[in-house]
Amino acid sequence: MNEADIGKYAFGVDIGGTTVKLGLFDRDAHVLDKWEIPTVKDNEGAAILPDIAESIRSKMKEKSILLDEVVGVGVGAPGAVDDEGVMVNGAVNLGWGVFNLSNTLNGYLHLPVESANDANVAAYGEMWQGGGKGYKNLVAVTLGTGVGGGIIVNGKILNGAVGGAGEIGHIHIEDNEPEQCGCKNRGCLEQYASATGIVRLAKRRLEKDASPSILREGGELTAKAVFDAVKAGDVVAVEIAQRFGEYLGKGLAAVADVVNPEVFVIGGGVSKAGEILLSYIEPAFQKYVFPACRGAKFTLATLGNDAGIYGAAGLILR
Amino acid sequence: MNEADIGKYAFGVDIGGTTVKLGLFDRDAHVLDKWEIPTVKDNEGAAILPDIAESIRSKMKEKSILLDEVVGVGVGAPGAVDDEGVMVNGAVNLGWGVFNLSNTLNGYLHLPVESANDANVAAYGEMWQGGGKGYKNLVAVTLGTGVGGGIIVNGKILNGAVGGAGEIGHIHIEDNEPEQCGCKNRGCLEQYASATGIVRLAKRRLEKDASPSILREGGELTAKAVFDAVKAGDVVAVEIAQRFGEYLGKGLAAVADVVNPEVFVIGGGVSKAGEILLSYIEPAFQKYVFPACRGAKFTLATLGNDAGIYGAAGLILR
Q: Structure pTM?
């Protein structure tokens, strides 16, 4: 092994409730290999970190990688993580209580470990190698089952006091909401701008009157169906998309007034609708945002499900 | 001069539209002297920085302070300032265009200069020596003619992409507002939670019906009058304070969802009402904020008009 080989590689780890995604990266941000292992949640998730350590050691053996050649391991976890790597509220989805994730994994692997919240790590990945490449002040917005957010300020993840920063899906956006959000509040952004939120908006619109729409033709009512109908010129679907855009644009305007990002990177399942999605968000954003913060760009995420392993590796390599 | 005297002092400068406030601080954050000079706005404010430099040089002469004994000069200015000290949009109130404030003042004084937006600098002062002492993640809220904000993350000012971070007074909070805000939008937090906003809320409430109130007894209708009436048990004034608290609590909940601060430090003229003010803000905040961000404390600012010079000096000494 010569000098140039020292610190050649890093691992990115994205811990989910069902599987752990892992990636082996070189210094130039190329993913050399990626794989998954199951997340074993028995016994309060006691096996998760040993399993990850074992999987990384196996991969190093398989590829003949020495300990000296690995710069470190980055980890994204589904819960609040503070700047020191502590899971400040544990992780309900994994059965974890409060402990220092970075130090514990370091104890198993004898490699430097950096940890952060999974949504924040995905945001970091999009900044490092995805839709937000070239920016250092960005907000990543994940429109999936819920609405997640990750905020990057000056190239660093914003964790906040207890790792609760970037919870943009729970900004209060509607005073007249009869149903509860998953968080028990009412009128959260997530209730209108997530995949399930869009379906709720669609149902409410369809129930309002009998105007004709592709969406009444018996297919499953999903966020994808709504945006497919928008692309087909369906008038009712366009109204639904406008309501969605009005809510999300208003919520992101509040985010911009607070952190003034250069760019919003929109990802998650809903973002598969493509650029047309942005055309419903941006006009509402411009209507509500403070003039000095109007310059924020909107772009689509590009890393998909790999944003987590990229961002985790980026914590080490960037 | 012995070794211990090197880097003994710093100056804090708070540039306002009418006067420039200056302070001489020792290393232990004591203000040794403070004074003001007029802000001369003629010729696009060309004299402002030379006047500040001259005033600092005079003070050094008066106190027999040598250049070596001064660590540097911190400056707060009324406009967006980026991380490099550039007034990115100039400063309308001073007649300034776009230029690098830090470098320019350094050119006059041959001392290190750090600059930031005045609201952010005041927030920094409250963190360093004021109501937020001991915290490193805080949001300072100034309830004056408008509603200003300054955000501190991990002990550093959050400027954002173009110095527009912390514009919390312009978070959209009300969809049904007929009047325009100063920023030309409608329904900004500032329209309800500033001193003038509270007067608007009071007028609207008093016009709604004829219920008796101290506020109808002919004195000038001000934010102070409203909170004095609240303290006297005036039912109508209490309703106005509740509306104010509902708006501000809702707005600050959105801020907490985004940056998850440890503490909100409430200052500005309206905060002279005292602790009673917080009793109207906190319940609404708790109602709207995401559960993980609920731990944020509320406290009153303590530095008053000196927050600016303290924060500016803190940029150098902290």
A: 0.92
